[in-house]
Every structure is written in C-alpha cells, then in structure tokens.
Amino acid sequence: MTEDYLDTYDYDVAVVGSGTAGLVAGLRAAELGNSVAVLEKAPKERQGGHTRFSESFRVPSVGTDLEQYGYEFAVDDYTTADFRRDIMSQTSGKADDELTDTLVENAGDTVEWLTAAGVDWQMEPLAVGYTAARTWFDGEEYVETLTAAAEDEGADFWFETEAESLHRSPTGEIDGLTARTADGRVNFEVGAVILAAGDYGSSDEKRVRYYGPGYDEMSVRGSRYNTGEALMMAESAGANLVGQWGGAHMALIDAASPDVEGGANRVDGYQYGAILNDHGERFVDEGEDARAHTYAKFGRLIFEQPNHVAYIVLDSKTQEMVRATGPSDPVRANDLESLLSEVGCSDPAVGAETVRAFNDACDPGEFDPKTLDGNATDGLPLEKSNWAIPIDEPPYYAYAVTGGITFSFGGVKIDTDATVIDTRDRSIPGLFAAGNSTGELFYDNYPGGTAQTNAAVYGKIAAESADTHVQP
Questions:
Q1: What CA–CA distances, in Å, run from 447 to 78, 89, 100?
Q2: DSSP 137-172
Q3: Angstrom distance (rounded) from CA 282 to CA 311
Q4: Chain-centre distance of CA 136, in angstroms?
Q5: SS3 366
Q6: CA 367/CA 163 separation, integer angstroms
Q7: Does the structure show a pLDDT above 50 at 233?
Q8: Are the CB atoms for 227 and 377 separated by under 8 Å?
Q9: Which of 342, 289, 287, 353 is nearest to 311 (CA)?
Q10: Are the beta carbons of 178 and 233 closer than 8 angstroms?
C-alpha cells in the first residue's frame, strides 16, 4: 500500500546494482527508449561493485573488430571455440552448455558495443604468461564512463538505495519493488526488474555458511556491499537458486592485503617458482597450467594451509617475471634458509631442504614462460608439470601470500534470454538477471577475465529482454 512508503516512483525498468552487469543493463535499456532507475546500495563514491576493483575482459580476438577504434589485441588468434574450451576445461565440464555458448558467441559484439560507448581499453598484457586475448581497463574510470553514458541516455541513478523486496501481480508478473533509502522505504512501480547486484562473498556469515569455519577471516578483494541480500530477495519471489554455492573465485593474493576492497592485489609469476606452506612444504603443482587458469583456485588451497599463508620462492632468473600488485615488497636474501626465516616461514630449514629437493628433480630443456613448456620435475611426491627450473641463482626472493575471495559462484537460474527461472522451472515474467547474481556458469575453477565478459553479455541481453517484455 502506498501509505507504507515515503513515495512511489514509476519506471519502465529497474536495475538492481551498478557493476558491469547493472551499468550495461541500465545503458542498454535506456538506449532502447525505456525509463530506467539504477538502484545502488553503495554511496556514489563507492559504486561499481566488484567491477570497481577489476582489470580485464577475456575476449575472442578472432571476429572482434576493435581496430576500427584504434585498438589491437596482443593475442590475435583466440577464437570463440578457444574461449568455450577454456570455460569447459576450467569448470570440469559443469558449465551450462547453452549459457556458455551464448556468452562466447556474443562476447565480441558486446565488447565492440562497450568500446563505442566510450570505454577506454589497454591492450598490452600486464604480466608474462597471458595465453588468451584480453582487454584491460581501469576499474574506477570504467565505472564512471558507463555511468555517464547511461545518464546521457536518460537513466536515473539512485545511490544508497537498497532493493528490499520484489512485488508480483496476481498473475505472477514482477510489477515493482520496495527499496530502502537513507530517508526510508520507497516504492518503485516498474514493468521489469533486472537483478545485477553481484554475489554473496563479501558477507562474513555467508562465507562461513557456504565454505566452512574460518572463512570469515578471508580477505575480500572487491566491494564490501556484495553481501547477497538481493539474491535472497529473488528467492523470496520464487527464483531458483542454482550453481556451486560452495564454490568461489578465491585468488592467490598478497598476505598483507586489507580485509576488504584490496582490489588487484595478486602476485603473478608464482608459476615460475615454488610455493611452500608455513611448514616449508610444497602442496600444489605450481606449473599445472597458465596463471589465468590456476590463480583463482590456488587461493583457496593456500587459505586452507596452516595459518592461511604460503610463500612463493624464486631466484634472480625469474624474479623479473613477477607482477606483484599487493602492498608488500618481496623479501630478498642470498641463502634460502635466511630468506624463509625473514619472510615468516615457521620452519625455514624444512623449506630450504624442500627447495633443494625440488632443484634436484629439475632437468629443464628450453624454458618458455609464455607457453606450457613441458619442463617437469621427476621424482617428487608432488611433481611440477611446467616451468620446473632450478631455484639456484641468488639473490633469492620470497612473497608471503594468502587466499582472497573475488566472487562466489552460486546465484539465480536464468535462461539464455537472461530471464529468471523459478523452482518449478518456469520463467518469472518481468524478472531478469545477469553477472555474478546468476549461477550455472562457474564451477571448481575460473578462466581469468571471464566474469566481466559474462556480466556485460548478459547485462545487455537482460536489457533487451526487459525491453521486449515492457514494450512488446
């Protein structure tokens, strides 16, 4: 009833959230002639969700024409088939086939559309070892660019406005929502709602609920506002919650990273050295695959080690290949035991012996940091599959690292039109979703750069589907 609200507002489309999925949806819906309200829980200076702290899109360079805008891909032979294969490989074949096909087939056109909207890309790889085509961006600048573009098309942004509940008509259509502002509760009467509010991984309580005891101590790399209430709101309206709710993108990050909003605080280049736990033991195959295919799962493995910490050990041959964006500087020493003692390892003698045994197991051929070079150890309980070269040229370097959550994998079920599906496997008319608010794409692991592409592709599709629903 209207007397329950401070005021009531009429829009064709309400978008919940203003990360990539919400900004793209708001811009596209406004382009199509709809009146649009973008509701953002954060204040304006913190808007953008995890996108504000992100860096890149994974893009099939073959068939994507950015040269018309003056950009050239550094990796020029990455196809939609390559993109699809990487998604399926990294998700253990569990990713939904139809969602995946729609994502990879629309990725190039969507990135072209973003470029035409004014997004400024960087095209040079940020570190050694990128094997898939990317476009890189500055998160804060990117959010500002798309916000301005959406406002230019007529979209209204409501900051410090948290969606609280969805309204369904007697016939089952979504026809409005209640939101809380700094002044109180307001009502939005709308023709469609697009859920683009991100994930639940920034909630201490939900991390413990879905990942286990101790996960309330894990650092949050992105926004503090992605705490999952919008997903519970959708569930209350009948949405089916699907995907790997116990899974997440948990990256290998600097151990001194802040508790929240640390951003791109990774230590890349670990694949060229050895990773030891606090007891001085190896516990992962550092060279299992390209960095973009291991960093998002190694963080969880590190976090589950003693004291949630591990140490990357390298020598002067490979140190220059490291890109460290966290707050710490590496520890440097001329002998391994001193190095490990200074970096904080509880048993530096064991760690030094582990590295010596690793060196003895190496018999490398030609070292190639840009490809899976096949240089493997031989004779270790846990072999290293690629880039296994001796760590034997001082000075030595060590980085203390831990695991940090980027985003969680569970969300609402959608179809390829971005329509939300209920627990009876029927669509909810007028409710659409995109980005990390959705499930059934990521499982077990994560191909780097894919979440931003997913958010943009399905944000655009959601807006077009909402437009068809509102203005058939």
A1: 14, 9, 13
A2: --HHHHHHHHHHHHHHTT-EEEET-EEEEEEE-TTS
A3: 10
A4: 14
A5: coil
A6: 53
A7: yes
A8: no
A9: 342
A10: no
Residue 3 has pLDDT above 80, yes or no: no
Residue 381, burial from CB neighbour count under 10 angstroms (0-12, 13-18, 19+): exposed
Q: Which structure tokens are listed for 417?
A: 């039109």
Interaxial angle between packed helices 20-31 and 139-152, expressed in degrees from 0 to 180 and rounded to the nearest 10: 20
- Distance in Å from the first CA to the final CA of the chain: 28
Q: Please give the full DSSP string across 429-454, using - where no structure is assigned.
A: EEEEE-GGGB-SS--SS--TTHHHHH
Task: Provide the 10 A C-beta neighbour count for residue 426.
Answer: 12
- Put simply, whether the predicted model's pTM sits higher than 0.90 gets the answer yes
The residue behind tokens 């790889």 is 125
Tokens 């798309």 appear where? 146
Residue 2 pLDDT class (50, 70, 90 cuts): very low
**Tokens 């035409």 appear where?**
116
Distances (CA, A) of 460 to 18, 106, 222, 455: 13, 10, 23, 8
* Residue indicated by tokens 């409501």: 158
pLDDT, tens digit, 9 for 90 and up, residues 214-225: 999 999 999 999
Radius of gyration over alpha carbons of the chain, in Å?
23
Residue 453 to residue 322: CA distance in whole angstroms: 26
Three-class SS state of 91 = coil
* 182 φ/ψ angles, rounded to the nearest 5 degrees: -65, -25
| Residues, the chain | 472
The residue-averaged pLDDT of 93-104 equals: 98
**Per-position DSSP letters for 13-82, written without gaps between them:** EEEE--SHHHHHHHHHHHHTT--EEEEESS-GGG-SGGGGG--EEE---TT---GGGT---SS----HHH
Give me the mean pLDDT over the 290-310 stretch: 96
**8 A C-beta contact, residue 117 and residue 146:** yes
Residues 6+ apart with CB under 8 A from 68: none
447 vs 454: CA distance, rounded Å: 11
Q: How many Cβ atoms from other residues are within 10 Å of residue 300's Cβ?
A: 21
| 233 half-sphere exposure, CB direction, 13 A CA radius | 28
Could you tell me if 439 and 409 are in contact, meaning their C-beta atoms sit under 8 angstroms apart?
Answer: yes
The rounded distance, in Å, linking the Cα atoms of 448 and 256 is 23
